[in-house]
Amino acid sequence: MPPTPQPQPLVTPQPITPDAPDPIERPLLTQSWLDLAFLHWAADPADVAGLLPAGTVPDTLDGVTYVGLVAFRMHRVGWFRLPGVPYLGSFPETNVRLYSVDAHGRRGVVFRSLDASRLLPVAVARLGFRMPYVWSRMAIDADGDTVTYTSRRRWPGPRARSRLTVRVGRPVEEPTALEHFLTARWGMHSTFFGRPMYLPNAHPRWPLHRAELVEYEEDLVMAAGLPAPVGEPVSVLYSPGVPARFDRPAPPPGYWSGAAGPGAVSGSGLNTGW
């Protein structure tokens, strides 16, 4: 059976650059992402197209898109130029994400789920902004060159958990085309009160390390409505982290026919590491 034809953006996607294309002088939101583990599996664009916000299609590299599981430590989320909050704004987080491009050629990420260990931020994000945050019991433990991330959902369902351990390897001197594609993302596509939204971000160039997956058990990907990952991840990376800034949401791009089918589910999130 021939592959399912995929909707295409009206313009060529913007180039992937290791540095943010535009500085953010007056941020809406600030935060740091620390001790990140990036796990990625290849995916058929047809399997994820219906899970993206309207006005976007799967972003691909050589015809393949990817599903990411990213575990990290959020640090001092803050609004505008105010100091970041030390307790409520600092917590472990794990997200499931997809890769998207819109009619303006803007590449971004789409969050299918975001597990976090602070109930108040989760409740505010879910009730106030309709973001798919989930309250979970979480921990990040470092032992020498290994880091272990654990998560078990509390509220709301479906129940899901993850446990992964990575061994940090040598720094990445020159990222591959795939490593650029998976990490050099300067915006998020989402839906806010029924309207498409693109939220730009900026941060220093990622300090990346290649990593070995020592232990892995999770069902967060399936709980996010995606097929279960098959086999080992095609990419495992670690980063000690970066400070990040978010700009005001950009005007939504135009729609194109077939970009997202009826009832397509969108992911969203503001306090999200990418």
Properties at a glance:
274 residues; single chain; mainly beta; nine-stranded mixed β-barrel; 12 strands
Draw up the topology in text.
Layout: E1 29-43, H1 45-48, E2 56-58, E3 65-79, E4 91-102, E5 107-116, H2 119-129, E6 133-143, E7 146-155, E8 161-171, H3 177-183, E9 187-192, E10 195-202, E11 209-218, H4 220-223, E12 235-246
Task: Kindly describe this structure.
The protein contains four helices and twelve strands; from the N terminus they run E-H-E-E-E-E-H-E-E-E-H-E-E-E-H-E. By secondary structure, it is mainly beta. Strand 6 (133-143) and strand 7 (146-155) form a beta hairpin.
Average pLDDT, all residues: 85
| Beginning-to-end CA distance, first to last residue | 35 Å
Q: Count the E strands.
A: 12
Q: What order do the strands of the largest sheet run in, or round the barrel if closed?
A: 1-3-4-5-6-7-8-11-12
The coarse silhouette is globular
From N to C, what is the helix and strand string? EHEEEEHEEEHEEEHE
The tally of helices reads: 4
Query: What is the makeup of the main sheet?
Result: 9 strands, mixed, barrel
Poorly predicted runs = 253-271
